[in-house]
Write a structure and sequence with these properties.
Number of helices of chain B: 26
Subcellular location (chain B): Cell membrane
Structural class of chain B: alpha+beta
GO cellular component, one term (chain B): plasma membrane
Largest sheet of chain A: 6 strands, mixed
CATH topology of chain A: Rossmann fold
Radius of gyration of chain A: 18 Å
CATH architecture of chain A: 3-Layer(aba) Sandwich
Number of helices of chain A: 7
Pfam family, one (chain B): FtsX
Order of helices and strands of chain A: EEEHEEHEHHHEHEHEE
Strand order of the largest sheet of chain A: 6-7-8-3-9-10
Strand content of chain B: 15-25%
Transmembrane segments (chain B): 28-49, 275-296, 328-351, 363-383, 403-426, 432-458, 483-503, 718-745, 777-800, 812-832
Distance between the termini of chain B: 43 Å
Oligomer: heterodimer
Distance between the termini of chain A: 25 Å
Radius of gyration of chain B: 34 Å
InterPro entries (chain B): ABC3_permease_C (IPR003838), Membrane_comp_ABC_pdt (IPR038766)
Chain lengths: 232, 849
């Protein structure tokens, strides 16, 4: 199987106010394969989001190497990493929609940035797929939390990403809405054969993933694979 | 009740504590800087304007011989002088009259001035040091009279008189029945005013000798000038005391009235200085409003958290308002002090360039600047911060509960109120306040409509554009809530700067035009008709730039509409000079240059009055107004016994500042040609050409030559100062424009940072984001430039017409320069202000949001 993401001895260290080095991540080796769904678990402050940021090329490691689609990230500057990010999609806990753009414009934006000609048609298609075909002209503030997250999911999938990164995607939602978002995310992931990397502290949500990695004291441990229970 | 009061009192210590904490957080920096800069600008301009104005007034007072002059045809009540002295003022009388001065080898009509001890109160009388100095040697050293005056029996004369009488120092002359010895030659007299009374050469005698000359009899045409000097407040108080006691024949002159050229220059300069500092304050005010808005947005969470702990939002809002007031006081004091120091450094550095010593500033600018700071803060920052009182504690749970924008009525109402108060406070001029406020409101309203229209247009064309401009247009349109105030702020900066620069150029140009380097510096009067051609030829031979020779017929205005003139005019005009002396009349076929017809029509070039037909007359506007005359009124003139009657067919505005011969009454050709007449000419002599003066005097002994180059030089000196003040003001307006520019850019920075991070997360490179931003700022700049264009043309039109008395013409360079420079300046400032957008790691920004 082809690995989409690979890390070797990945480390991230920050210095605190007293000049003490704080090792958030140390010596992390992992491989994530195409089409897999992987959950990264850990308690609050364990460094889950930091790891996600590194894997997605949003942040730089202090040591070690990351390969995204066989391309090493450490040699790239911010411009290079930005180019790499055109191959990935994001879903955030706080949605991160642009308030002043309509649902359609929010979904169009990454397509336009990637130079896609049919940006409007593609964005519209994806909004219809997440069930918001009637609300494409609505602004984020006119949508509920669940609807906003659907827009974010449409935005993430519209660019046909190699890897989809989801950071606590249900963290801001009630359990019923959260469940519907999880269902949507996994269904689309399956249909599009996207690699999904999901950061969560919710063991329930993690159970939907094929693999589960746990971060503890800066180290990553792999748990035994479990049956995928997520169903559309 | 007691508890409530206690609660209120506790807010001040809380505000103090909070101020210290907020200060450390750095979020108050922008507000503080904007405020300090605003106050500093006001203080700096205030101090400099105050000092320059004092300097200019001091110099103007020197031109007049005192701070205040009372002119009267008769001696005034001695009590008035006593009153002035009781008020701590110096008071000195002078008496002027025309008299023949007879020497051994001829006589000459002279303007005699009798002066008393203390004369001149302001400025100095300069005398030629060496009595044997040759006439050609105009650059000789001069000595100040140092308060000395001609002793009894002595006369000091100017060189013209000496030449005309062919006399010398030590010679004797007769004025009336008294014999005087010529002891000194006057080089420069501070209070030498224009007017035909003083066109004759000067003799200066002691006041105590007047009676013995026997020249001044009851009914003689004399002019008393009482000069007063002292502290300005005392002068003003005395003026107020005097005003109701004046008779119609009295004229009270202050520096603004006595010298038309200096007066109108000072007046316009003062208006300009006011306008420029108001411009700077408006710019700073908007910067303060923007910084305060940003601060309030960033403090919503604090207030919400405090509110959830039981400190109600109104209480917290109240504490923040107090904090604001404390900050305002601190900033105002800092700003005023900085302004004062900068002003000291600035004037010290240019001290050598200044034509006069600048007196120290008064206390007024301190009060003005500190007061401005506090008013500015409350007017422009009060509304956004007050809005913190409305933060819902629910925001603790729901971050999306954004604070509603404060009501626009509140924001603009408060700001406008503060502005009107300030403009009126600075200018004490209701007309200026009215026009500026109206102009501003109209411009702002029109700008908002125009901007929204342009945005809508952009939205329509947007989708057809390539990716980067398309995204820029969309960002602009979808951010119209923040982009509108931003574009208006940018527009305001460009507009105020353009306006201040435009008026500066036109003011300077109008002064240049009025007093070109070759403005006439000599007048020749009493040229006899038979000398006409010789005199002109003599000047032309020396290649002297001269005016035409205007014929002058002297006549007394004897009747108006068939009634004796004095009976026909309103009571307050009965003592008008025009009724009591001979007027200079002339005839012309064409309208003199610099004259403007304001009603009626000028006659055709080939018009000749037929015998027996009604004679049309052209009347000067000021005289028409004073004597309440209009078109169709008939005027009769007694011209050496012959009565000529004509009808006013047009009224002319005359530019009295231009040092050209000007006339109250002009007739068409065919009426006055056969009357006894003399001719008048003005001309410019360069230093080189001055050599011809003695020859002229010898060749035309009856012609009086009046050298007005000293008056011209003094006026020019004042204009240099005024110009400097104007340049300084322009500089400071630019500076406050820059601050507003940065505040406006900063205002959208939080949003741009988050958007930039998100764009980059979605795959946009830094270069792409910069390029989108560039398009956005260029668009903002062009739109702002268009607004500024509209605003500056409209306001300039209103100001020119109503305040500066300048001709308005559309400035086509502005049509190109404003949108272009708008695009360049705003793009540069915008890109500089948002440079961090692509520098911060996206993850950091997204987490913070």
């Amino acid at each position: 199987m082809k690995s989409v993401i690979r890390t070797e001895q990945l480390a991230r260290t920050v210095t605190d106010a007293d000049g003490q080095a704080l090792h958030i991540l140390q010596g992390i080796d992992c491989q994530i394969y195409a089409g897999e769904s992987v959950a990264i678990l850990g308690s609050s402050g364990a460094g889950k989001s930091t790891l996600l940021g590194l894997l997605a090329g949003l942040d730089q490691s202090t040591d070690g190497e990351i390969w995204l689609n066989d391309q090493p990230l450490s040699g790239l500057n911010e411009e290079g990493r930005a180019r790499m990010r055109q191959q990935v999609g994001f879903v955030f806990q706080s949605f991160q929609l642009l308030e002043h753009l309509t649902a359609l414009e929010n979904v169009m934006l990454p397509l336009e940035l990637a130079g896609e000609k049919n940006y409007q048609a593609i964005a519209q298609k994806w909004l219809e797929r997440v069930g918001l075909g009637q609300r494409i002209k609505h602004y984020p503030r006119q949508l509920s939390g669940g609807e906003q997250q659907r827009v974010a999911i449409a935005r993430a999938f519209a660019g046909d990403p190699l890897v989809l990164f989801a950071d606590e995607p249900t963290g801001n939602l009630d359990s019923v809405t959260g469940q519907s978002i999880i269902d949507l995310l996994f269904t689309l992931n399956k249909e599009n054969q996207t690699t999904l990397i999901l950061v969560t502290h919710d063991a329930n949500l993690a159970r939907h993933c094929q693999r589960r990695l746990t971060l503890q004291d800066g180290l990553l441990h792999e748990e035994q694979a479990v049956a995928v229970t997520g169903e559309a | 009740m007691t508890q409530r009061i206690k609660h209120k009192v506790a807010r001040w210590p809380m505000a103090f504590k909070l101020l210290a904490r907020e200060w450390r957080s750095g979020d108050l920096n922008l507000l503080f800087i904007a405020l300090v800069l605003a106050v500093m600008t006001v203080a700096l301009t205030g101090f400099i304007a105050d000092r320059l104005q004092r300097g200019m007034e001091q110099q103007a007072a020197q031109l007049m011989g005192g701070d205040l002059v009372l002119r009267s045809p008769r001696e005034i009540d001695a009590q008035w002088l006593q009153e002035a002295r009781d008020r701590g003022l110096q008071a000195v009388p002078t008496l002027e009259f025309a008299s023949m001065v007879a020497g051994d080898s001829g006589f000459q009509l002279s303007a005699v001035k009798a002066v008393a001890s203390g004369y001149p109160l302001k400025g100095g009388l300069e005398l030629e040091k060496d009595p044997r100095t040759q006439l050609q040697d105009v650059s000789a050293d001069y000595a100040d009279s140092a308060g000395k005056l001609p002793a009894s029996g002595e006369v000091w004369v100017d060189r013209r008189l000496l030449t005309a009488l062919n006399a010398a120092i030590g010679g004797e002359v007769e004025i009336g029945q008294k014999l005087f010895t010529i002891t000194r030659i006057i080089h420069k007299e501070p209070d030498r005013s224009g007017g035909f009374m003083s066109l004759n050469p000067r003799s200066l005698i002691n006041f105590s000798d007047v009676a013995e000359t026997g020249v001044v009899q009851p009914g003689s045409r004399v002019r008393f000038r009482y000069m007063f000097a002292g502290d300005l407040p005392a002068i003003d108080a005395f003026k107020d005391w005097l005003a109701p006691r004046l008779k119609p024949s009295h004229r009270l002159l202050d520096i603004r009235e006595d010298r038309p050229s200096v007066g109108s220059a000072l007046d316009r300069a003062q208006r300009y200085l006011q306008l420029a500092s108001i411009g700077a304050v408006i710019l700073s005010g908007v910067a303060v409003a923007m910084a305060a808005g940003r601060f309030a947005r960033r403090r919503q969470d604090t207030v919400a958290v405090m509110a959830s702990f039981g400190f109600a939002a109104p209480v917290m809002g109240g504490i923040y308002l107090r904090l604001l007031l404390l900050l305002g006081i601190a900033a105002a004091l800092c700003g005023a002090l900085l302004g004062f120091i900068l002003q000291m450094i600035g004037t010290y550095m240019v001290a050598d360039l200044l034509p006069v010593h600048l007196p120290p500033a008064g206390w007024q600018p301190w009060g003005l600047s500190v007061g401005t700071g506090i008013l500015l803060l409350m007017g422009f920052a009060g509304a956004p911060l007050r809005q913190l009182r409305n933060v819902s504690p629910l925001r603790v749970f729901r971050r999306d509960l954004e604070l509603a924008s404060p009501s626009s009525v509140m924001v603009y109402g408060l700001a406008l109120f503060a502005l009107v108060v300030m403009i009126y406070w600075y200018s004490a001029d209701a007309r200026l306040t009215l026009w500026l406020t109206l102009g501003l409101v109209a411009v702002m309203g029109l700008s908002a409509i125009l901007t929204l229209g342009l945005f809508r247009l952009l939205k329509l064309v947007g989708p057809k554009l390539p990716m980067r401009p398309r995204l820029a247009v969309r960002s602009l349109y979808s951010h119209k809530q923040t982009a509108l105030p931003q574009v208006m702020a940018f527009g305001l900066v460009l507009m105020v700067v353009a306006l201040v620069a435009l008026i500066r150029n036109d003011l300077l140009a109008s002064w240049q035009q009025q007093l070109p380097q070759t403005a006439p510096n000599y007048f020749a009067i009493n040229i006899q008709p038979f000398e006409r051609q010789d005199f002109a030829a003599r000047l032309d031979q020396a290649a002297v730039k001269r005016s035409p020779l205007y014929p002058i017929v002297r006549g007394r205005l004897s009747g108006i509409n068939g009634q004796p003139a004095r009976d026909a005019v309103p009571d307050n005009a009965k003592e008008d000079n025009a009724l009591h002396r001979e007027l200079n009349l002339t005839w012309r076929s064409d309208l003199p240059e610099d004259n403007q017809i304001i009603s009626g029509r000028w006659w055709r070039d080939d018009f000749r009055v037929q015998p027996g037909a009604m004679i049309p007359l052209s009347l000067e506007a000021g005289m028409a107004e004073r004597l309440n005359l209009g078109l169709g009124d008939t005027l009769s003139f007694d011209l050496a016994g012959q009565i000529v009657t004509g009808e006013v067919t047009n009224i002319r505005q005359v530019n009295w500042d231009n040092f050209q011969p000007n006339f109250y009454v002009i007739a068409p050709p065919g009426v006055l040609e056969n009357m006894p007449q003399t001719l008048l000419a003005s001309f410019f002599l360069s230093d080189e050409q001055r050599r011809i003066v003695p020859d002229l005097v010898k060749a035309f002994p009856a012609v009086s030559l009046l050298d007005i180059s000293q008056i011209l030089a003094q006026v020019r000196q004042i204009l240099v100062q005024v110009t400097l003040a104007i340049e300084v003001m322009l500089g400071f307006t630019l500076l406050s424009g820059l601050v507003l520019l940065l505040a406006a850019v900063k205002n959208s920075l939080d949003e741009r940072l988050r958007e930039g991070a998100l764009y980059r997360t979605l795959g946009a490179s830094g270069a792409m984001i910069r390029s989108i931003q560039r398009y956005e700022f260029v668009l903002l700049g062009v739109v702002a430039g268009l607004l500024a264009l509209m605003g500056s043309e409209l306001t300039a039109y209103l100001l020119y017409r109503n305040l500066f008395d300048l001709d308005y013409s559309l400035s086509f360079t502005h049509w190109l320069v404003l949108p272009l420079s708008g695009a360049v300046i705003i793009t540069l400032a915008g890109l500089w202000g948002t440079r961090f957008v692509v520098r911060q790691p996206p993850l950091q920004v997204l987490r913070a949001g």
